[in-house]
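FORM 7B: Structural annotation worksheet

SECTION A. Query
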Amino acid sequence: MDGKLKKAASIFILISVGVFLSQCQQDENEAPDIQKREPNKAVTAAKKWFENSRLQLEALAFTETIEWNNAIVTNGEMGRMIEVPLILKPNTNTNVVTDEDYKTHMRLLFIPDIAGTYKVYDIVYTTKDYAFDNTNREQNFYHIDPRYSGYITIQDSQNKIIYSGEFVNGMVTILHNLSRGSNETSRTYCRYWVYVGPTVTCSSWVWEPDYGSGYNWGPPGMSGAVPRTYFPSFKLDPCGAAKTTTGISAKSGYLNAKSDIMQASADGKEHSITLGNGTGGALTQAPMNNGGTNGVVVNQNWPGAFAAMHNHPNNTPLSSGDIYAAVTLNTKNSNFTTSFILTGGETYAIVITNLTAAKAFVAAYPADISPIYPPEFPQVIFNQIQSVKEVFGESNAGRTMGIDFILDKNNAGITLMKQDGNGQFNTFKIKMDTKADGSQTYSRIPCN
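SECTION B. Predicted structure
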């Protein structure tokens, strides 16, 4: 294919019957169309429905004004969303943490359905940024402002907290109450406080989602207009994702799946196991799929699926096909963010940390398909990776580092990781500096 050097490495090939593993060679996106601020039909319809409904959202008891004139209407892949800022009563503040330096802002989220009714949620922004503008249209269902740091908490119409995440510079770093060590969420009640003047009252809101041990960064259980999806633009912090991946790899379900694949790999073929979230934070594993020397089917439909693991029988590095397949899996299932690759006695991971950017990358640089060879990076990306090969070396880790560097250079929203001898997954983030003489130096960016 245009003189490309063909490398043997495991890849995914998406065909009509599913996603396959096979061997081969080795940002912000603009927010969706936002409607003008003046009243429009969508806002008018939501307001009329709201005034005729009997919602018992607890936030309304602390609300002085519903700012319909500042309603934010966004259109995107999940449909139309309407967000209406709330002004709380004087001397009233709510918090998901006890630190009083955090202040809270709220919005009502209206999700219309085909029957002319709405699902309604309360979005709670908890931040130390005293300049936070709750009418800022750049902070919306489809786009989290890259300057936002704090927490985003979501309460459903039954006064139950269904999501709470900690954000730094627009990226979620961890689920609130999630222990990275065990990757389990606390199910403790009274994790939400309401301040009225000097009095602190435990709210009736409760925190009890069952996130299990995977990457369910959006809240479970949202059905109807946007099934199991919230804030499609969630961007995972690569370092936070690496810590969470480390926690996942310590789970017995992960270790059992890895052991099963390594034992089966003695036949010189590829094998794949999909991991899912079980009860009580445990991992479940789908039955192993056995493939050939150049491919294996990935189970996409296992309950609670969030990751897939497969081996490279020829000890080759992760490939372009692996990466394209990881984006495909995450596009089909917002929780399916991770792919583990076992090769040469080492373990690597691909995590989609910004699905919006990853989809844009795939659209801009679609896989180069050949009737003879598996999908590969298009020539322009392939050439960029080849150009840094001498910098990072020919080892599996070096080649993976080169791919990660080029993906970052093209704002691909994809993070590659390698597990070290202590069981910790580390990212391959690289900083390039240009000296006065024009030469370039490269240094690893460590996670804190």
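SECTION C. Observations
Confidence is low (pLDDT under 50) at residues 1-18, 22-31, 35-39, 182-230. The two ends are 42 Å apart (CA to CA).

SECTION D. Sign-off
Analyst initials: ____
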